Amino acid sequence: MILKTFGCSNTRGAELKNPSISAWPVLVGKKLNMLVKNYGQGGASNDQIIQDSIEKSPKTEKLLIIIMTTHPARVYWPIPDATDIEFGKKHDGYRSINYGRMHRTQFVPNFKPKYDPKSGILRSKTYSLWVKYHFNHDSTIRYQRMQFKWCKELLESRGHTVYMFNWEPYNDSDEEIIVQNKTETMNDICQNMLKGKSNHFLEDAQEVWANYVYKIINQNKNKK
């Protein structure tokens, strides 16, 4: 059996000296004596995490899958390259954009979408209008909650074993936890431990969280 993990930078192992050795997915795999494929992506949205987990978990493999949710304020948005717009080419690439840093009423009069990697903002009139008139935080939480339930059902129907965890309780409200289960969040377990400049937990916290995840998996094994 192979262990596959999906999530954002908190799963990828951002700010660690050597993520291939010290990221929590690797540590969990070592404890379980399993080959690990970590698909965590920096800046990934929940939509992207779900899509990746479905695409990379075929029923032809027998997998242990661990998914960690991310900030609900990230939107999976189509990003065409400037050359594609200029020459009228079709482009189906998507990127996860953090709308939370954007002023909803301030629009940039630019008809060519440009992704600014430093700010995480898509400077597009279309995107700005969509966020202002169509993005609702509470509705998004409910929708993503439903998506993750469906994702788990689908992956389990393929014969995989699936665990889902939350990175944090958003706005410190249980009502905003995306994956509703009895497990604690990584932020809860490691809240007093060191973080890097970009707010990612460092090596010591990775070990603590890996121990917690391993404990949950073992508890479920013993119940069967």
| Class of secondary structure makeup | alpha/beta
* Percentage of residues in DSSP E strands: 15-25%
Q: Which parts are unreliable, with pLDDT below 50 for 5 consecutive residues or more? A: 82-92, 101-111
Span between N and C termini? Answer: 18 Å
Q: In order across it, which strands form the biggest sheet?
A: 2-1-3-8
Any idea what the shape is? globular
Mean pLDDT: 81
Q: With helices defined by DSSP (H or I, 4 residues minimum), what is the helix count?
A: 9
Order of helices and strands: EHHHEHEEHEEEHHEHH
Kindly provide the radius of gyration, computed on alpha-carbon positions and rounded to a whole number of angstroms: 18 Å
Report helical residue fraction: 40-55%
Summarize the main sheet. 4 strands, parallel
* Strand segment count: 8
Describe this structure in words.
- This protein is of the alpha/beta class and 224 residues long.
- It has 9 helices and 8 strands.
- The protein has a 4-stranded parallel beta sheet with strand order 2-1-3-8, sandwiched between helices. Strands 4-5 form a two-stranded antiparallel sheet. Strands 6-7 form a two-stranded antiparallel ribbon.
- β6 (114-116) and β7 (121-123) form a beta hairpin.
- α3 crosses α9 and α4 packs parallel to α7.
- It is globular and about 50 Å long.
- The two termini are 18 Å apart.
